[in-house]
Inverse folding.
């Protein structure tokens, strides 16, 4: 290589440690009918008032953050009488163009599944399986690019893990959640980098001892979050491989991510957290 070519090559190379984002397809549902009217997780308190206008503003900022990063966001219309429908992650798992719909544990959320099933049908998805077992979709399923990490303990049935493996044709790793505040896998773990060498962040205390050992074996270099990161739902993050959208209180986690070459982007989800949700809960990713 000539000196000039070597120089040009160096100029084009990303700065050391910087990571490369990949463009994502997300699905969201506006919190037009958001409310906390029932209690299905320890974050929910019907006596604490929620402000729909604030929730809408926070949701719009989240959506605009994704769009600014170049990601595509599809919107499923909100339905009256379904105050938790803003948590789109719970309504489908899509890998390689195959859709596994959801089946909610709480009767109050049951009808959400059908609205999303219809949306998939109207948006070109032909392989849609609706589960027989309780399955709260990306609330409890995280795709690493090679494995589907699957949570159980509070919502998704362990039998739904085998069902997901069969429906999606991907290997599933079952993980047991043990702390009711971290009732969905996506409140305690998220994928930072998908692919052949995936990277995750998680809060070990949310998992059973055996599941902790599984995570340690599979991801020895994982980012380990502490109690403060977890208790603001900091693990409910959304990463494109470089930019990581996080609740603004997750400062310790952000520091760790920055040290590893990620770009933390903070959003305010204070209103949505009153129902036990953060950025990831509001965001379903269409994989492949
Ligand atoms: N209130 C909702 C519930 O308890 C919050 C769901 C949050 N979604 C999530 N993916 N963690 O079902």
């Amino acid at each position: 290589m000539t000196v000039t070519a070597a120089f040009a090559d160096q100029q084009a190379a990303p700065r050391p440690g910087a990571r490369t984002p990949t463009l994502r397809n997300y699905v969201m549902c506006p919190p037009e009918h958001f409310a906390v009217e029932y209690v299905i997780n320890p974050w929910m308190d019907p006596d604490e008032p929620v402000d729909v206008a604030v929730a809408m503003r926070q949701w719009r900022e989240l959506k605009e953050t994704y769009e600014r990063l170049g990601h595509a966001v599809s919107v499923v219309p909100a339905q009256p009488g379904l105050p938790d429908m803003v948590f789109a992650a719970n309504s489908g798992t899509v890998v390689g163009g195959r859709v596994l719909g959801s089946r909610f544990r709480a009767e109050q959320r049951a009808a959400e599944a059908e609205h999303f099933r219809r949306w998939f049908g109207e948006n070109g998805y032909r392989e849609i399986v609706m589960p027989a077992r309780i399955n709260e979709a990306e609330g409890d399923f995280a795709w690493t690019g090679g494995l589907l990490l699957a949570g159980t303990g509070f919502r998704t049935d362990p039998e739904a893990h085998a069902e997901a493996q069969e429906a999606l044709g991907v290997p599933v790793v079952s993980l047991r959640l043990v702390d009711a505040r971290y009732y969905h896998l996506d409140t305690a773990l998220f994928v930072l980098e998908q692919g052949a060498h995936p990277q995750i962040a998680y809060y070990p205390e949310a998992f059973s001892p055996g599941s902790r050992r599984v995570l340690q074996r599979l991801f020895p270099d994982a980012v380990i979050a502490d109690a403060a990161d977890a208790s603001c739902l900091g693990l409910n993050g959304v990463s494109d491989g470089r930019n990581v959208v996080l609740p603004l209180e997750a400062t310790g986690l952000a520091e760790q991510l920055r040290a590893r070459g990620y770009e933390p982007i903070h959003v305010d989800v204070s209103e949505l957290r009153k129902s036990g949700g953060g950025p990831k809960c509001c965001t379903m990713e269409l994989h492949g």
Notes: Residues 1-11 have pLDDT under 50 and may be disordered. The longest strand covers residues 148-152. The pocket of arginine is lined by residues 40-41, 44, 84, 87, 89-90, 109, 139, 184, 186-187, 275-277, 281 (CB under 6 Å).
